[in-house]
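Q: Protein A?
A:
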Amino acid sequence: MPSITKLHIRKNLPVKNTNAELSLQKKGANRLYSLLLSILCLIACFNGELSAQTIEPAGIFGDNMVLQQGINAPIWGKASPHQVIRLFFAGKQLTTQTDQQGNWRFNLPKHAAGGPFRIVIADHTDSVVFSHVMVGEVWLASGQSNMQFTLHEAKNSVQEIQEANYPDIRFFTVEHAISQKPLTKVQGEWKICNPENAGNFSAVAYFFARELNRDKKVPVGIISSSWGATPAEAWTSGDALLKHPDFKDSVTHYRQKQEDWELLYRNYLAASEAAKKTNGKPPIMPAQKNYPTALFNAMIAPLIPYSMRGVIWYQGENNANNSRGIQYRSLFPLLIRDWRNQWKNDTLPFVFVQLANFKERNAEPVFTDNWALLREAQLLTLRLPHTGMAVTIDIGDAKTIHPTNKQDVGKRLYLAANHVAYHAAGEYSGPLYKNMMIQGNRITVSFRHTGSGLMSKGDALDGFAVAGSDRKFYWADATISGNKVILSCAQVSHPVAVRYAWAINPPAGLYNKEGLPATPFRTDDW
C-alpha cells in the first residue's frame, strides 16, 4: 500500500462568485483543478489522516491576490528539502524541486489581464489552493502617515466608502513590524474592494487604484506598506545605507547589537493592549521603529520579488525636520535605486508626492524653510529616469499635516504614473521651471509642462519673490505672457534671483490650463 498522503486545502474567503467566474466554470476552465482536487480528496479520505502543512507559500500570496500581467510573475515559498513541487495555473502545470533549505520558486507563464483563476501548489503530501486570483496591474504604495491615512478619514468618506464597489481592485495591507535584519515573512491579507473593506484602505492608494482601474479596465492590486512618522532611511536597506556617509556608521553599529527589535515591538503591542484594558498610561513606541533599515527589513524585504508595475510613495515630512532637506537630495534617490536593485528592475517606475502646504502662511517671503528644502530635494529627484511627481502645494491644510483631500492626490499620482509607467500621451505635470532672462529691472521666467497654456487662480498671480545681490526677497508683480511669466518689483531695481512658493505654506497661484499647479522652485543656491 502506498505511503499515507495527506491533504490541506486553504479555505476560500467568503467572496460572491462573479459572472466571469461562473462563465469560466461553465466552460470547463477549472476541470484540471477539480480533477486534481478530487484525486487528493479521495486519497486523503482513503488514508483517513491529515498531517501538518508542509507547503508554505510566502505570506504575500493568498486568495484574492492580483498578479502582474505580461511578465513571468514569481511565486515562492518553503517546503521539505529536496521535494518535488507542482503548480497548476490557467491550464498549465509547472514542476520544480526544493533546495537543501526547502526553498522553492516558480515563474508563471506570462498572462494577460483577467480572471478569476485558481492556483494549486502541491507535493505528494500537501496541497495549497489560492482562489479568486486576478491578473492585472500591481503597485506598491509606501511611505509615512499621509500614505497610511485611510479612506475612513478622507474627505467625503461616507459617500466614498458607500461607492467603493470595485471587485477587480484588491488591497494587501502589510501589518506594522520592525526588524534588525531582513525578514522573509509578512503579515497581511488580500481584501476585495467593497464598502465593507474599503474604509481601512490607504486613501491615496485607493484613489490611485480607482483611476487606474477605470482607465485601463484591468484588475488592480495594491500592496500597501506604510507607517506614520517614519523617515526614509528606515525604509532603505542596510547594504544601500552603507554607501551613504551619514548612515554607514549607524548601520554597522545596529548590525553588531544583539537586540531583538521584533520582540521589542511585540512587547510594546502587548503593553498597549494591557493599558487599554486598564485605562493605564500607554507605553512609548520603541525608538528602533525609525532606525535605519528597520522598516525595510520587516515591511519591504518580505515582499521581494513579488511582481509589480511600480511604486507610489508619499513621505518626507519626517526628513524635513532639522534642515535635513539637503540630506534628502542623496537619501531619496538612494532609496529608489535600492528598491530597483532589490527587485532587479532598473526601470521600475517610482512616482511620489511632493509635500503639501501646511501651517500658517507668512506675510513676507522667508529666506530659509525646511519644507521648501525638502520639496526641492523631491524636485531634484526627477533627474532619475522613470520617476514622476505629483505636486500638492495647493491642496494641503494649514491646520493639519494630514489634509483630507486625498482624491486629487490619487488623481495626480495616476497622471504621472500613466506617463512614466504606461507612456500615455497628454500633459501629466504642472509647470516646471526652465530658465530665466534678466532685462533691467524685469525677469522673464520660462517653464516646461505649460500644457495648453499658463493660467493663474485668483485675481492676481501670487507666490513669486525676487531679490537683488543683497539676497533680500520681496514679493514680485507677476504677469503671464504666453507661456512665460514676467516679474518686476519696485523694491528691487536689479533683480538676480527668483523664488516661487518657497515656504511651508506659500501663496501659489500658477497653473497650466490642465489645472495642474506649478512646482515650487528657486533660481539661487543661497
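Q: Protein B?
A:
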Amino acid sequence: MRAFRKSMRPWQLAALSWLAAGLCLVPIAAVVVAAFGGGLDTVRGLAGSVLPRYAGATAFLVTLVAIGTAIIGTGCAWLVTMTEFRFRRLLEIALALPLAFPAYVLAYAYTDFLDHPGWVQTTLRDITGWGPRDYWFPEIRSLPGAALMLILVLYPYVYLLTRAAFLSQSANAYIAARTLGRGPGAAFLRVSLPMARPAIAGGVLLAVMETIADFGTVSYFGVQTFATGIYQSWFAFADRAAAAQLALCLLAVALLLAWLERAERGDRRHHGAGRRFEAMAPAPLGGLAAAGAILACALPVVLGFLLPAGLLLSMGWDSGQLLFAPRYLDFLRNSVTLAGIAAVLTVAGALVLSVNARLHPSPSSRGAIRLAGLGYAVPGGVIAVGLMVPFAAFDNALDGWMRATFDISTGLLVTGSIWLMIAAYIVRFMAAALAAHDAGLSAINPNMDAVARTLGRTPRGLLSGVHLPLLRPSLLTALLIVFVDVMKELPATLILRPFNFDTLAVQAHRLAADERLAEAAVPSLVIAAVGLLPVILLCRSLGRERGTGQAYVPEIEPAS
C-alpha cells in the first residue's frame, strides 16, 4: 500500500480501471463479431431447426420460475414481516437458507429421491403392490421439474428484497385502509403490495436472469434451452458460429433483463415509501391461521434446504466415497485455487474501479463501473464463448508465426491454461464484488472525506488511512461472495477448463450425467457447505434493526 501511495498517479488509476472494464467488454464484443462472421446460412439453419425449440423452452421455464418465485417470495415476506406467529423469528432467517444450494445440486438430490428407483416410488410400490406400469407418477426430469428446482433456490432473492420493502413501508397507508373497512387481505392487495412492486419486480428479474443462465439443471434434466444449445453447438457439433449466434440471442435477452432490473431498482431508490412515520405492528395470528402461516413458511425451507441436505448426506454416506481421497483432494485443490485467485483479482479490480470513481469522480470513471458491471447479466456460457474465440485466434496466430519464423510450436498459451478461466470468473462476478464494496463505501459519510482533506490528507492518504480500514469488512465479504460463486460456477468451467483439470462442480456434473448420483453427492455436499458461508453472513444481517424501517438488503450475485 505504501508503494501504491507513492507511485499511483490519477492517469494510471484511470487506465487500470478501464483495463478492468475492457476485460468485461471483450466477451460481449467477441460474441457479436463471431456471430455476424458466421454467415446467414447458420442463422437460417438455426431458425428452421433448434432456435424455436430453444426459445420456447427458455420462455416457458422463465415464466414458471417468475411466477413461482414471486408467489413464494412475496407471500413468505409478508407473513414474517406483517404477522406474528410461533417460530416466526426462526423462519424469518431460515427462509434465506436455500441460497446455499446451486440448482443443479438440488436436481441431483431430488432425482435420486423421486425417480423410478428412488425411495418415494419404491416405497409406493412396496405398499400398494403395484408394478412399474400400474400407476402414474410426475416425471422429475422435465421442464416443470427443472422449474421447481430453480424456484426452490431462487425465491430467496424475491423474499429478501420484498421483506426489506415491507419493513421500510409507512404504516399510515395500511392503517388508513383498515379504518376504511378493508380487511387484512384487501389492505395487503390494495396498499402494501403495490408499494412493494418495484422490489418484487427486481427480485423476480434477478431470478429470471439466473434461470436463463442456468446450465447444470436443464442439462441434467434433458431440457433444451439456449444455455444447453451453446454447449452442444461448441462441443458436440464443433460449430463455433452457431454457438456464437446462440450466445448472441441469449446475451440480448440477458442485457434486456439487466436493463429492466436496473430501471426497477432506480425507481425503487427514487420513489420509495420514504421514512416510516409509524411502526407497522405485526398482526397476531392464532389457531388455523397461525398453523397455515407456519406451514407456508416452513415448506420452502424444508423442500429447498433441509430435505436436499439430508438426501445428499445419506447418498454421500452410502456411496463409500472418501472426501479426502487423493482424487477428491485434487478436485478440491483445483476449485480452491481457481476460486482464491479469481476472488483476489476480482476484488482488486472492483477496488480500483471504485477508488477511481471516488477520488476522481467523472462521467468516465462512472462509465467504467457501469461497463464492468455488465458481467452479472451475461451467462457463464456466453462469457466462455466470447473469451475462447479471440484468445484461440491469438494462440493459433502466435503459434503459426513462431512455426514459420523460428520453427517452434508455442501451442495454446492462453486457451490451454487456467488464466482464461480466471478471466471468465472476473468478468462474471465483477458486479458482485462491486456491489459488496459499494455497500461499504456508501456507508462512509462524505463529510469524513472533507475532514480528512482539511487535515492535510492527500487523495491517496485518504484512501489508505480512512477508507481501507473502514472498508475491510466489505472487502472480506466481497472476497467470500466471489470465492463461493466461483466454486459453484459450471458452464464457463466446462467450456474453458484445460484437459484433465476438473473441479468439484465439474466432477459432480460428470458423475450425475453418468447416473452415479450417490457418488455425485460428495462433491455436491462440499459445494453446498461452502455456499453456506455467505448465507450465514446474510442471516446475521436479517436480525438488524427490525423496527427502524431501515432494513439491510445486501446485493448478492446469484449462482450459476
